[in-house]
Design goal:
2 domains, three-stranded antiparallel β-sheet, globular, Aspartate Aminotransferase, domain 2, binds pyridoxal-5'-phosphate
Length: about 475
C-alpha cells in the first residue's frame, strides 16, 4: 500500500512554511554580503516536513525492481548479488574521503588497492598490463580501439577497418565508428558462431581489429576461437575481446591464452559493482605487452622500495580517458570481491553461473523455443517468435507480464540475430528454489490469455511508457507552470 501523499512530486505536496529542520539562533554577528553573492528571491525549493519527505522517497524506492528485492535475469547485464560487506568497507573514511588531487604519498593505501587490481585483472585476462580508467565497458572498447589506432600509427600501418560479428552488442560498432574506423559486419552461421568463411572474405591488411564477444551474446562459447585469432593475426590485425561475458569463464580459460590482444572488463557486471539505470560502471582494459605503452595515463606503478605512484610520463600513451583515476568506488568493490574469493573462488563463480543457466534452460526449453539451446554458458536466448505468430504474443508482452509477477524481465530484442529474443541470465548467486519458481512463473505466463498479456503490467504504478519518447525527448526537470 502506498501513501497517497507521496504519489505526487515533492513540489506537488509542498506547503509554504513546512520545514525538515530548524536551525539554532546564530551566535555570530551578521555581515552584509556583496550584492553579487546574494539572491533576490529564495530558490524555488519544495517546502515539506521531514516525515513527508521520508515517505516520499521510501515509497518511490519501493516502486523499483532491484536485485535486493527481485530475481533479475537481465541477460548480458549480470545482475548478481552485491555483497553488503563491500558497501560497508568501501565507505570506510580512509577510502571514501580521499580527494583525487591529494599527493601520492598520502594515498598509498588506495594506490596499493588499484595496483593490485591492475595486476589481478591482467592475470585473469592472461594479458600483460591493465588500465583502470575507463568508466564503463563501452568506454573501455573505445579506449582500447584508440590504443590499437595509436599502435598501428606508431608502426606506420594504415588500417581502417574494425570487424564486428552481427551478434555483438551495439556498443562495438559504435565504438569502432567513434574511434575513426569503418565498422564491417561479420555474419553468424547457423550454429550462432562466427561464420569463418564470411570472416575470411572480409579479413585483409585493412583490418585493424576483430572484436569478438566470447562466450557470445547467445551464451555460446565460440570453439573456433583459436582458429579465428590465428587468422586475424596472420593478416596483422589485433583481436579484441568484449569481456561482458567474463562471468562464464573466470579462472577456466584466459582471453590472452586464446589469442585476444586486448579486452575490457565490466567490473559492475562481473565483479559485483551495484549497477542499473545507467551507472556507476567501471570498464578497465587489459592488453598484450606491445600495446602497453599506448594505454591511458596515468597508470599505477610500484617503486623497488614499495612506494606506489601514479605514472604520468608515458610519451606514447593515448592520454586520459576519464577524470582522475576512473570510478574507484566500483574498482574497490571489485578488488574486495577478488580478494575475498581468491583464485579457486573466482573459478567457482563461473562454474556455478554456467550450471545455473543450464539448469534454467533445461526447465524452460520444452515450453519456449531456445534456437541455439542444446546447452549454454552463463546465459541463453529464448525466442517468442512462434508465440507471436500463433497468438500475437510478443517478447515484450512476456517481459511486461513478468513484472506483475515480481520478476525483473529478461533482456528483450537483443541480440538482434534472434527474433523476439528473451535473453536470460540467472547468475551464480540465485538458489535452485528461485530458479524453480521463476521457471514455473514464466511457463504459466506463456499459457495466459493474450489479452491479459497485451495489457500488462496491471499491478505497477505505470504500465507501458512510450520508450522512444522517453529516450528521444526525456523530461528530466520539473518546471513550475
Ligand atoms: C554491457 C555490455 C557492453 C557495454 O558495457 P557498459 O559497461 O554497459 O558500457 C558491451 N558488450 C556487451 C556484450 C555487454 O553486455
Amino acid at each position: 500500500m502506498e501513501n497517497n501523499q507521496s504519489t505526487g512530486l515533492l513540489f506537488e505536496i509542498a506547503k509554504p512554511g513546512r520545514r525538515c529542520h530548524t536551525l539554532p539562533p546564530s551566535g555570530v554577528p551578521s555581515a552584509t554580503l556583496d550584492a553579487c553573492f546574494t539572491r533576490q528571491a529564495p530558490p524555488p525549493l519544495p517546502e515539506v516536513a521531514e516525515l513527508d519527505l521520508v515517505r516520499h522517497f521510501t515509497n518511490l524506492s519501493a516502486r523499483n525492481m532491484a536485485i535486493d528485492c527481485n530475481f533479475y535475469p537481465l541477460g548480458s547485464c549480470t545482475m548478481k548479488y552485491n555483497p553488503k560487506r563491500h558497501e560497508r568497507l568501501v565507505g570506510l573514511p580512509g577510502l571514501a574521503t580521499l580527494h583525487p588531487l591529494q599527493p601520492d604519498q598520502t594515498t598509498q593505501g588506495m594506490l596499493a588497492i588499484l595496483y593490485e587490481t591492475q595486476a589481478m585483472l591482467a592475470e585473469i585476462a592472461g594479458l600483460h598490463a591493465c588500465s583502470l580508467q575507463p568508466a564503463a565497458g563501452a568506454q573501455g572498447e573505445l579506449s582500447a580501439l584508440l590504443v590499437a589506432a595509436a599502435y598501428f600509427r606508431h608502426r606506420g600501418e594504415n588500417r581502417t577497418r574494425v570487424l564486428v560479428p552481427d551478434s555483438a552488442h551495439g556498443t562495438n560498432p559504435a565504438s569502432a565508428a567513434i574511434a575513426g574506423f569503418d565498422s564491417v559486419t561479420i555474419k553468424s552461421g547457423e550454429d550462432g558462431l562466427v561464420d569463418l568463411a564470411d570472416l575470411e572474405s572480409k579479413l585483409d591488411e585493412r583490418t585493424a581489429v576483430f572484436m569478438i564477444t566470447n562466450p557470445n551474446t547467445l551464451g555460446l562459447f565460440d570453439h573456433q576461437i583459436l582458429e579465428i585469432t590465428l587468422k586475424v593475426h596472420d593478416k596483422g590485425g589485433l583481436v579484441y575481446l568484449d569481456g561482458a561475458n567474463m562471468n562464464a569463464i573466470l579462472g577456466i580459460t584466459r582471453p590472452g591464452d586464446f589469442g585476444a590482444d586486448m579486452m575490457h572488463y565490466n567490473v559492475h557486471k562481473t565483479f559485483t559493482g551495484p549497477h542499473g539505470a545507467g551507472g556507476p560502471g567501471s570498464g578497465p582494459i587489459a592488453v598484450r605487452d606491445m600495446l602497453e605503452p599506448f594505454l591511458p595515463s596515468p597508470v599505477v606503478t610500484r617503486d623497488p622500495d614499495g612506494t606506489f605512484r601514479l605514472k604520468h610520463d608515458r610519451p606514447l600513451s593515448i592520454g586520459r580517458v576519464r577524470s582522475f583515476f576512473g570510478n574507484v568506488g566500483v574498482l574497490v568493490r571489485g578488488w574486495l570481491y577478488l580478494r575475498t574469493l581468491g583464485p579457486d573462488g573466482v573459478r567457482q563463480v563461473s562454474e556455478q553461473a554456467v550450471l545455473n543457466a543450464n539448469y534454467l534452460l533445461a526447465l524452460l526449453k520444452d515450453h519456449i523455443e531456445v534456437p541455439k539451446g542444446k546447452g549454454c554458458m552463463h546465459e541463453f536466448v529464448a525466442s517468442a517468435k512462434a508465440l507471436r505468430r500463433e497468438k500475437r504474443v510478443s517478447a515484450m508482452d512476456i517481459a511486461k507480464r513478468l513484472l506483475d509477477k515480481g520478476y525483473h524481465s529478461p533482456t528483450v530484442y537483443f541480440p538482434l540475430v534472434v527474433a523476439e529474443a528473451l535473453m536470460i541470465e540467472p547468475t551464480e548467486t540465485e538458489s535452485q528454489e528461485t530458479l524453480d519458481q521463476f521457471a514455473a512463473t514464466l511457463i504459466s505466463v506463456l499459457g495466459e490469455d493474450p489479452a491479459v498479456l497485451h495489457e500488462s503490467p496491471h499491478e505497477l504504478s505505470i504500465s507501458r511508457p512510450d520508450e522512444v519518447a522517453a529516450t528521444k525527448q526525456p523530461v528530466l526537470r520539473w518546471k513550475s507552470a
